[in-house]
Write a structure and sequence with these properties.
- There is one protein chain.
- This protein is of the alpha+beta class.
- The protein has a domain at 69-179 and 214-263.
- The protein has five helices and eight strands.
- The protein has helices at residues 35-42, 106-109, 111-125, 216-226, 241-267; strands at residues 69-76, 88-92, 103-105, 139-149, 155-166, 172-174, 185-190, 208-213.
- A six-stranded antiparallel sheet has the order 3-2-1-4-5-6. It has a two-stranded antiparallel sheet with strand order 7-8.
- Strand 4 and strand 5 form a beta hairpin.
- The longest helix has 27 residues, at 241-267.
Length: 268
């Protein structure tokens, strides 16, 4: 048997399957804060206090001899509702309801303080609209409480305690704001929007507008009482009780001395 010697048949070349490696995962990106946030987190937020434009509360001080007392101011309004000439100002040493409490006419003994007090009261009661002034040709008596704090270097404050107004018969009547008869009448009406619809709150309840109506006398007393806190500066140069008492004695003796001088003049 013949043996044939030849080249061996080459084995078929099998292409190897190349498995591509999965791409490496990209590193997670860090969240980048805006520059403003970075700056805010790196430094503490400093809040500067707003500068207040409100002026410091002004205080007033009385002379050493001045003590707490009551002042009564009496006046009659003119035909235009402003304070007319002939105002009386009395300094009361003690309680006003004490008939024996000494009273001094400041228009005679301390006209500077009396004038300053009248000026401030007149200024507060003035209104450009004549209908908003006090009732014309009516008598008023305003009781002012002068408080002097010795612990605060004679710091003074003033407030209106009581107000009397003459009635139709000309009799002075105390208008007591605590008296129930002087309570305001109250009216309620539904609140409406521009379209006329009734306004309601979040729970569906109707909203009302409450209006308080005061009598004319109570309106005037409330207005006069509001002027009290502006009266304190009038007493910065006030005379004390000792000075007033000395002037009172001199004033009482003055008419006698004047009459004596007139007699001597007549003799000549």
């Amino acid at each position: 048997m013949a043996i044939t010697i030849g080249k061996k048949k080459a084995a078929p070349v099998v292409a190897k399957k190349v498995v591509k490696a999965a791409p490496a995962a990209a590193p997670a990106k860090k969240a980048v804060k805006p520059a403003a946030k970075v700056a805010a987190s790196s430094t503490k937020k400093v809040v500067k206090a707003k500068a207040s434009n409100k002026p410091a509360k002004q205080t007033f001080h009385a002379p050493e001899d001045v003590r707490s007392a009551f002042i009564e101011v009496g006046f009659i309004t003119a035909i235009d509702g402003l304070i007319a000439p002939g105002v009386t100002v009395e300094y009361i040493k003690g309680k006003p309801d004490n008939e024996n409490a000494p009273r001094y006419d400041l228009m005679v003994h301390d006209s500077a303080t009396a004038s300053a007090l009248i000026a401030r009261l007149s200024g507060r009661l003035f209104a450009p609209n004549i209908s908003k002034r006090l009732t014309p040709e009516t008598e008023y008596v305003v009781q002012v409480r002068l408080s002097v704090s010795k612990s605060k270097d004679n710091q003074i404050s003033a407030s209106v305690r009581n107000v009397w107004i003459s009635n139709a018969k000309g009799k002075l009547v105390l208008v007591d704001l605590k008296d129930p008869k002087n309570d305001p009448s109250v009216t309620k009406e539904l609140r409406r929007d521009a379209d006329g619809k009734v306004q309601k709150d979040e729970e569906g309840n109707k909203l009302y507008k409450v209006t308080k109506v005061y009598s004319e006398a109570v309106k005037e007393v409330r207005k006069i009482r509001s002027s009290g806190r502006f009266l304190a500066p009038a007493f910065t140069d006030a005379l004390g009780p000792v000075e007033l008492k000395a002037l009172d004695k001199a004033y009482q003796a003055y008419p006698v001395q004047a009459e004596a001088g007139e007699e001597e003049a007549d003799d000549e």
